[in-house]
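Z., the sequence and structure:
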Amino acid sequence: MTAFLIVNPRSGDGGSDELVRAASERGIHVHTLGESDDVVELARSAEAGALAVAGGDGSLGAVAAVAIERDLPFACIPLGTRNHFARDVGLDRDDPVGALDALVDGVERRIDVGRANGRVFLNNVSLGVYARLVHRREHHRQRRDAFARLRALTIVAQHRTPVGIRLDGTPLHARVVLVSNNAYALDVLSIGERERLDEGELHVYAPVGLLRSGWEERSGERFTIDAAAGRLPAAVDGEPEMLETPIEFAVEPRALRVLLPRRPDA
């Protein structure tokens, strides 16, 4: 099987040279993204039996969508900062070179994907305060502002009103709304890992109470989120996006063929 690996050199700390060398030694065709590259067109035109991305969570969705479109296996090589998808699918997030084994002698697993107005997401879509933070952080990052994160948090702290959205026609009063592909483990103040990626359901989470002492949760195969605004700022797998309302969310059970290294911890 010939694999095509797209490397995002801007992910994480940018240290992709070792990974590129290791991939080439394994006979994997590697393309390092340039400023003008269209990742979707690269994935669509690649003559390969499998597609892979080395990058963070925000780098994965577009290529995963092409893999579904072409019915090809897909592999994630963790190279970002948090790598939540890699964690939840069972990869060692600190070993991107080891993850290349999936493209040489891997095992295939089918998992669900979510869609928001047709766009694939692997982890979740966030609306509200966190989404505003992501948009502000990206804005300041592009200006190369060293204090981008601090400024983003300061601006977000000033927004104390609910998002003002309706979930399937019912008002949802919360400052943060998260739509996830499969269920997350919930703590009092945080959302943790996913135990499964093939349960075939989306989950909607919103913190409740003045002190965010718990979570309101709903699950189902599809949801509609609407708002008075024609568009809502969103974070799709951690990347800033503007989504047209109403936003139609749906799950595609076992739509993505994921390749994993042939070892017990995966």
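The longest helix spans residues 129-142. The chain is about 25% helix and 35% strand.

Let me know what you think.
H.
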